[in-house]
Amino acid sequence: MKHATFPDFCSALCRLLAVPEPALQSDALGRRRLSVMCEGVRVDLVDEPSTARPQARLLVHLGTVPPELEATVLQMLLQSHHELTGAQAPVFVRDPLSGGIALQQRVPLRQVEPADVCERLWAAVEQASGWAWVCRAA
User: Fold this and answer.
1) Whole-number Å distance between alpha carbons of 9 and 13
2) What is the Cα Rg of the chain in Å?
3) For residue 98, what is the DSSP state?
4) pLDDT the model gives residue 138
5) Residue 36's closest CA among 136, 130, 131, 114?
C-alpha cells in the first residue's frame, strides 16, 4: 500500500525496520525529518513539503573522509555520478558544515512502497559500513 503522507510513510518504514518510531523533528524551513540508526549508521528521511507531489529525501550518512584521502575520494564520488542514472538514482552529497558525505535518494511517496525504500536503505547501510572500514584503514 502506497502512503500519501510523510508521517504515514515514516510509520510504515519504522515497522519494517523494526525500530521504535521516534517523533518527527522539524527544521526552520518546516521540513520534517525522521532519524534512525541502522547498524550504527544514521539514516534520515526528510520531508520535501514544497514540491507538488509528496516526496522525501533518503539520506544515509557515510561519515567524513580522512584529510589525506579527501581529494582522491571526492574525485571518485564526482566520477561516480556519471554512472548513477535515473530520476530516483542516488547521489553523493557533502554537508558543508561537517564535511560528512551522505548517499541521497529521492523518494516519491505516492510511487514507492516503504518496503522498496527499506531495501534501498539496507543496501546503502551496507555500503556505509564498507565506507567506514575503508576510512578507518587509511
Assistant:
1) 6
2) 15
3) T
4) 47
5) 114
